[in-house]
User: What shape does this take?
Amino acid sequence: MKRLPMKVMLLAMLLAAGASGAPSDRLASFVPAPGRTDGRVYYFVPKAVDTSRRNALLVFLHGGDASSPDSAPEKYFGEGGWAMPVFEEAPFIVVAPSAPPAADGSRWNRVGVAKMIEATIEDAKRRFDIDPDRVFLGGHSMGGFGAYHLGQVLADRLAGVWASAGAWWEMDFRAFLGTPVYIQHGSLDCSPRPGYAGGHSHPRCHHWCGVSFARAAHELMTRDGVDHVYEEHGGGHSLRFPEAVESTRRFFAWSRERRRDPFARRIALVTPCGSAHPDVEPLRRTRWLELLEAGDGDIDVDRIVLKGPDIARTDDDLALQTYKLVTMHRDGGARIVAENLGGNRFRVETRNVRRFRILLAPAMGDLARPFTVALGDGCTVEASARPLAGERDYTAYLELELVDLSKRNDK
Assistant: This one.
C-alpha cells in the first residue's frame, strides 16, 4: 500500500484522531494519552525517517517533576526543543506520552504505567508501519529514571533501553538480561560551575540524578553480565551539551543494529520488578520464563546509597559525591535466572520459586527430544516438551516443580 507523504499523513492524523494543540505539522499531539482518560501523547517524525517503509519506534519518557505539564514533550521535540536538532537524525519514529500525574518526580515509576506504555506502542502500530522487534524505550532525567524501571518491566518486548541522565534506587539488574541497555550520563551533571545547573538557583542535587547512579548501574550490569554500553560524557545534565549531542548520536548508531531477541540464551524473571521508588511491578512472565507459584520467602536486590554532599558548592564537593552498594530484601519476591546451554540443556537458578515454566520454540532446541534442566546442588531433571497454542514466539513448554524449596532458597 502506498503511503502518504509525511506532512499529509500527519495532517490526516490530526483530523482523524482529534489532535489538540499540535505545535506544528512535524509534531502531532493527541488527547487523551493511550491507555488513559487524561494526558497527551506526541508523535515526532525525524527528517531521517521514511514513513513509506517499516520503521523502528522509540517510546520517549520526558523529564520534569510533579509540576510538569501534559505538554512537557513539546520542550524536547517542539521548535527549539531540548532534544533538537540532533533528533532530526534519529533512526526511528518517536512517540512521547505525558507522564501520569503524581505528587513527586517519580511519575513513570508506578504500578500500572507499564500498561500505559504498552497501549502507547499499540497506538503507534496503528498509526505507522512499526517493526514489533525494533521498539526501544528511552528517557531523560525523570524519564531516564523511568527507563531504568520500565525497561526491566517491559524488557521482553524491547529491542533496547536508553537511560539518559537517570536514576534508580533498588533493583536486580539481571532483569535486563537479553535486552541491551545504553547508559548515557554527564560527568558534570551536578557541577557547581555556571551554566550546568539547568535553570536552578544551585547545582543539581546528587539524589536527583547524579552520575553516581549511572556508575553504579554500570558496575552492577558488568558484574551480572548484562549487555550494555556505558557512555559517561563530559557535559552536564542537559541533552543540549555538545558532549551529550555526540553521545546521543552514538546511541542512534547503536540502535540501528539492535533487534528484540525472543530466544535470548540467558534471561531472568524477577518479581516484583523495577526500581523501588515508589513502587515495583509484579511480573509473572518474561520471554521464555513464566512463574507459576512462588514461595513464602524473599529475594535479595541491590540498593544504592549516596555518599558525599548532596549539593556540590565546589569542584572538591563534586569529587566527594560517590556511592556504595548494599543488599536489600524484598518480601514475597521470586527470581529465576536461566540459560539455554544448547543441545536441549538448560541451567536454572531460582530463589523462592515453587513452580515455573520454560517456553520453547524450534530455535531453542529439538522439541521431539527430552530436555535436561540443571537446577543446582547437583539436581537435574529431564522433561519432555508439551504443545502450546496462542503464542507468537513459542510453540511448546516444560513445566517444573521444585519439591524441596529450601535447597533452592540458598541461591
In short: The radius of gyration is 22 Å.
